[in-house]
Amino acid sequence: MPHPGQKATFLRGILDGLPFVLVSAPFGILFGVLAAEAGLNLFEILSFSLVVVAGAAQFTALQLMMDNAPTIVVLASALAVNLRLVMYSAGLAPHLGRASLKARLAAAYLLVDPVYALSATRYDAEPDMSMARKLAYFFGTAAPVIIGWFSSTLVGAAVGTQIPEAYALDFALPIAFIAMAGPMMRTAAHMAAAFVAVVLALSLAWLPYGTGLLVAGLGGMLTGARVELLQRQRVEA
Q1: Which one, of 184, 137, 185, 179, lies nearest residue 23 by Cα?
Q2: Which among 215, 222, 176 has a CA at the least distance from the CA of 76?
Q3: How far apart are CA 165 and CA 85, in angstroms?
Q4: Of 109, 194, 220, 233, whose CB count within 10 A is highest?
Q5: Around 116, how many Cα atoms within 13 Å sit in the side-chain half-sphere?
Q6: Contact call for residues 132 and 39 (beta carbons, < 8 A)
Q7: CA–CA distance from 41 to each of 33, 36, 51 (Å)?
Q8: pLDDT in tens, 99-117
């Protein structure tokens, strides 16, 4: 039997996730278009999205593939971009860590930026939520986001190069990340990590195959972890 409030919580998650479809859909369409231009067929493009389920990593890998980068560089870059998902998992572990293995595997597959941002915010706002309601909200937010991503990728792949460049669909990428990252800049550790990552990314933009982003991401994470450690030590002192 459904847990009391589980259905309402799932619907709440869907409603909260719907606005992100408006931002991610152009992003997905753009990926489908670029992948088609790169020579991938419809099956390959859809499989790319179904297997990776990570827009930023997909764009990174696709660009490097188009630049004929070595396979190891493509894989390393895509994995580096997705390292943030490890931090997301750690952030949600206190809330979902005791769920069933099946639920955790499904959550791991569906864990993307908007789903994490919405779920983490909701869990912090309602610390007394039951496990059933936490899972319901998580999967509720994931439903429109993931379905929207797959559908928009399929649309982009189908239309291919028919979309005029004047539509400038690439505007969705920076807007999406700003919309998700902005509200999460709640602590000094978050802001320090973002600052160091941005400075390093701009300073190392000259490195080949976008490897500067690897260094920037690592530097940002190390900085954030160090600042958070210093804050904890100060509180405990």
Answers
A1: 179
A2: 215
A3: 32
A4: 220
A5: 21
A6: no
A7: 11, 6, 15
A8: 999 999 999 999 998 899 8
Under the banding of pLDDT at 50, 70 and 90, the label for residue 206 is confident
Q: Residue 228 region, left (φ>0) first, then alpha (ψ -120 to 50), else beta?
A: alpha
Domain range annotation of the chain: 6-169, 185-237
How many Cα atoms occupy the beta-carbon half-sphere of 179 within 13 Å?
17
- Indicate whether 1 pLDDT > 50: no
SS3 of 121-138: the string is HHHHHCCCCCHHHHHHHH
Specify the pTM.
Answer: 0.73
Give CA–CA dist 14/102, Å, rounded. Answer: 21
Tokens for 22, please give them.
Answer: 């408006």
Name all contacts of 40-49 with Cβ < 8 Å and 24+ positions apart: 40/157, 42/154, 42/157, 42/158, 45/153, 45/154, 45/156, 45/157, 46/150, 46/153, 46/154, 46/157, 48/153, 49/149, 49/150, 49/153
The residue assigned the tokens 């969705």 is 172
